[in-house]
UniProtKB/TrEMBL annotation, chain B:
The UniProt record lists the keyword Transmembrane: yes
Domain of life from the UniProt record: Bacteria
Organism: Streptomyces actinomycinicus
Keyword set includes Glycoprotein: no
Domain ABC transmembrane type-1: 14-212
Membrane topology category: Multi-pass membrane protein
Cellular component GO terms held in the UniProt record: plasma membrane
Annotated protein name in UniProt: ABC transporter permease
One annotated GO biological process: D-methionine transmembrane transport
Annotated keywords: Cell membrane, Membrane, Transmembrane, Transmembrane helix, Transport
Length: 369, 247
């Protein structure tokens, strides 16, 4: 793929404390046609707060309601109840009653970019004309449109493809065009609906990198939904886990990693290793910041005179943070190890006791619809 | 009959057929295109969902489409007189031809437009595009190759209908075949008529297929008849698919 042009990514993030996307009590109920009483609750009171300038990932299995959620944010899907506020504007109030979008809602939508899993480029138009489409809708003049389109093509690294048709591009290039098109109206917010799910791993990385760069360079707020943990791991500042139409966990990535028993944290940064016998206690020790430099394992062994086996360990960068995690095994049951565990917690480490079932919940990776 | 006797009759007949089919095709496209699009838009889940309007248009289209043309022509006589002032001749034949072709083309338009990927409609909506913008920049251009094929089919069907227009004194090739071939046993005249029709229909089909294919090729969709593949070299399209590059 093309390397991303532009200045090197600044290390600092642009996140502010202002909420740019807020949903409160968002509910979406689909009524099966002509069957009385059959209802599907896709969203069940979702409260989402996306801060300005952050990349926010919503992850969950197929059918968890992610798609409904992102489509409710620009009201492509009308929520049954609840409100959606984007950049201080209550979109649900603009929606009106009928299924058709009025002028004001359309105006508001033009300030929200959206990127799709299957790109949704018009095959009858060239790449440049595809990017000009949102500008046509905004009523810009031809010359201004083409200047803007070429500038955006340059930004996404496809300056030489202006006259090509989408059918002549690879998947990754199509998604770059999709991103350029989404940015044409200078949106503050970009919605990404499984934007990388139809791409191979390497292309996925380059598209995510592009989103990250745009987030940093333009201060663009990105709300993305995905079923791939790697997406959250590589670009998100914050994440939420959806299950059955509800958000079950949410927060910044560092908060999540510091939350004992967090499913998302475990899935973001898994360590493996089975207990060697029934009479053992298995602990996941998470190090971040200061605690990473402490020689805790040897201290523990010396202080309590116990033998410690290391079952698995890893160091990784999650959401830009260096983090280490180690799965260790202590002899004896949990009841026998309350004191050593207390000692470890005193050292500022995060300790998760791995239950006898022994397994960290795994988020199923399966294709979205 | 000698050729010099036949020639003026045939050229007049060709001109009459062209005149009737040309005008009625034009009217059928102008009226059938919006009607077909409206059928899609007003359908359940459509952008202008309206069950009553949809059912009403659908019913009218169905009835008009299943009506035998010769009966339609007679049934519309009052209407035809109101429009053209007469029920005899070329102009009078254009009215029932157009009325018969509008629902025919509308159904073909409906089928073509339904094929358009809903994701594209959603993309334009997400940019704040109106329904009219969706129609103009997505539904029509994305289904254009298929719409052209539909128009070709409509023209050919209209040539068929126009053969019956001889019954209202409109002339045309069908009329020549009946009057000379059937009533006067002028077999030579009839065969020439058949040959002309065969050539005209083949040419129309070829032109329609070619137009649809070159649009298809540009947008990188596959389809069309393999028969015309060798012609690519002779008539290069706007953009060759061979140039597809991956990086």
């Amino acid at each position: 793929m093309h390397p991303c042009p532009g200045t090197p990514t600044p290390a600092h993030s642009t996140v502010t404390e202002t909420h740019v996307i807020t949903t409160s009590g968002l509910t979406k109920i689909y009524r099966a046609h002509r069957s009385h009483g059959r209802e599907v609750t896709a969203l069940d009171g979702v409260d989402l707060h996306v801060r300005e300038g952050e990349v926010y990932g919503v992850i969950g299995q197929s059918g968890a309601g992610k798609s409904s959620l992102i489509r409710c944010v620009n009201l492509l899907e009308r929520p049954t109840s609840g409100t959606v506020t984007v950049a201080g504007q209550d979109l649900t109030a603009l929606a009106g009653r009928g299924p058709r979008a009025g002028r004001e809602l359309r105006r508001a939508r033009s300030r929200i970019g959206m990127v799709f899993q299957h790109f949704n480029l018009l095959s009858s138009r060239t790449v440049q004309d595809n990017i000009e489409l949102p500008l046509e809708i905004l009523g810009q003049a031809g010359r201004a449109r083409s200047l803007k389109a070429l500038e955006l093509l340059d930004l996404v690294g496809l300056a030489d493809k202006a006259k090509a048709y989408p059918a002549q591009l690879s998947g990754g290039q199509k998604q770059r065009v999709g991103i350029a098109r989404a940015l044409a109206g200078d949106p503050k917010v970009l919605l990404s609906d499984e934007a990388t799910s139809a791409l191979d791993p390497e292309t996925t990385r380059s598209i995510l990198q592009l989103l990250r760069d745009l987030n940093r360079q333009l201060g663009l707020t990105v709300l993305l939904i995905t079923h791939e943990m790697d997406v959250v791991k590589s670009v998100c500042d914050s994440a939420a886990l959806m299950e059955k139409g509800r958000i079950v966990e949410s927060g910044t990535v560092s908060e999540l990693l510091a939350t004992p028993g967090s499913e998302l944290a475990a899935a973001l940064f898994p360590v493996s290793g089975e207990a060697t016998g029934t009479d053992r206690t298995v602990l996941d020790v998470t190090f971040h910041g200061e605690s990473a430099t402490q020689p805790v394992v040897s201290q523990l062994a010396r202080t309590y005179n116990i033998d410690i086996s290391i079952l698995g360990a890893a160091i990784d960068t999650v959401g830009g943070l260096q983090i280490g995690r180690m799965r260790i095994e202590l002899p004896g049951r949990y009841e026998d190890n309350v004191v050593p565990i207390g000692f470890l917690r005193e050292q500022g480490l995060q300790i998760d006791v791995v239950g006898p079932a022994g397994e960290v919940p795994v988020l199923v990776e399966e294709g979205a619809k | 009959m000698t050729w010099s006797e036949m020639q003026p009759v045939l050229s007049q007949a060709c001109w009459d057929t062209l005149y009737m089919v040309g005008w009625s095709t034009l009217i059928a496209i102008v009226a059938g295109l919006p009607l077909g699009i409206l059928l899609v838009l007003t359908d359940k889940g459509g952008l202008l969902q309206n069950v009553v309007v949809n059912k009403a248009i659908g019913q009218i289209v169905n009835i008009a489409r299943s009506m035998p043309f010769i009966i339609l022509m007679v049934a519309l006589m009052t209407f035809t007189r109101w429009i053209t002032g007469t029920t005899i001749g070329r102009e009078a034949a254009i009215v029932p031809l157009a009325i018969g072709a509008i629902p025919f083309f509308a159904r073909l338009v409906e089928m073509s437009v339904r094929e358009v990927d809903g994701g594209l409609v959603e993309a334009v909506q997400s940019m704040g595009g109106s329904t009219w913008k969706v129609v103009r920049s997505v539904l029509v251009p994305e289904s254009l190759p298929s719409l052209i094929s539909g128009a070709t089919t409509t023209v050919i069907a209209l040539i068929g209908y126009s053969a019956m227009a001889g019954t209202v004194g409109a002339g045309g090739l069908g009329d020549v075949a009946v009057r000379y071939g059937y009533q006067r046993f002028e077999t030579g005249m009839m065969w020439i008529t058949v040959a002309i029709l065969a050539v005209v229909i083949s040419l129309l089909q070829f032109a329609g297929d070619y137009a649809a294919r070159s649009l298809h090729r540009r947008s990188g969709k596959t389809g069309g008849l393999l028969l015309f593949k060798p012609l690519r070299g002779i008539f290069p399209g706007t953009v060759a698919t061979d140039a597809v590059k991956k990086s």
